[in-house]
Amino acid sequence: MVGETGRVTCENLRANVVIVAGAVRGNITAEKIEIRSTGRVWGDVVTAAFSTEEGAFLRGQIRMEDKVELGSAPAEETPALNEGTISEENIPSG
């Protein structure tokens, strides 16, 4: 979940479910992706389930698949947390 004030910059973000209410700059691969009305995504999306609210923004391509394999990333690809930066403005404590 990327909250309204959250900002993520990475090459590739991989997760089971991604909900974007803030901003993501990078490609997203997930079983389910939701971009909320305040959400902004700059990057390509690969998913089995995709939804947006009115006002959502996506600059990139969407590729729908029957099933998305999230297995381990290839050796040249590292987890999103190590690839870019994440703003901690909207990460709940605890």
Oligomer: single chain
The total count of helices amounts to 1
Helix-and-strand structural type: mainly beta
Tell me the series of helices and strands, N- to C-terminal: EEEEEEHE
Query: Which regions are unreliable across 5 or more consecutive residues at pLDDT < 50?
Result: 75-88, 90-94
Secondary structure: number of strands: 7
Radius of gyration: 13 Å
Biggest sheet details? 7 strands, mixed
Global shape: globular
Residue-averaged pLDDT, rounded?
83
For the termini, the CA-CA separation is 15 Å
Secondary structure: helix percent: under 10%
What fraction strand?
over 45%
Any chance you could write out the topology, listing elements then pairs?
Blueprint: E1 7-20, E2 23-35, E3 40-42, E4 45-52, E5 57-59, E6 62-64, H1 80-83, E7 85-86
Parallel strand pairs: 1-2, 2-3, 2-4, 3-5, 4-6
Antiparallel strand pairs: 1-7
Describe what you observe in this structure:
This protein is mainly β. Residues 75-88 and 90-94 have low confidence and may be disordered. The two termini are 15 Å apart. The radius of gyration is 13 Å and the shape is globular. The longest helix is centred in the last third of the chain and has 4 residues, at 80-83. Strands 1, 2, 3, 4, 5, 6 and 7 form a seven-stranded mixed sheet that branches. The chain has one helix spanning 80-83; strands at 7-20, 23-35, 40-42, 45-52, 57-59, 62-64, 85-86. The chain is built from one helix and seven strands, in the order E-E-E-E-E-E-H-E.
Briefly summarize what is shown.
The protein is mainly β and 94 residues long.
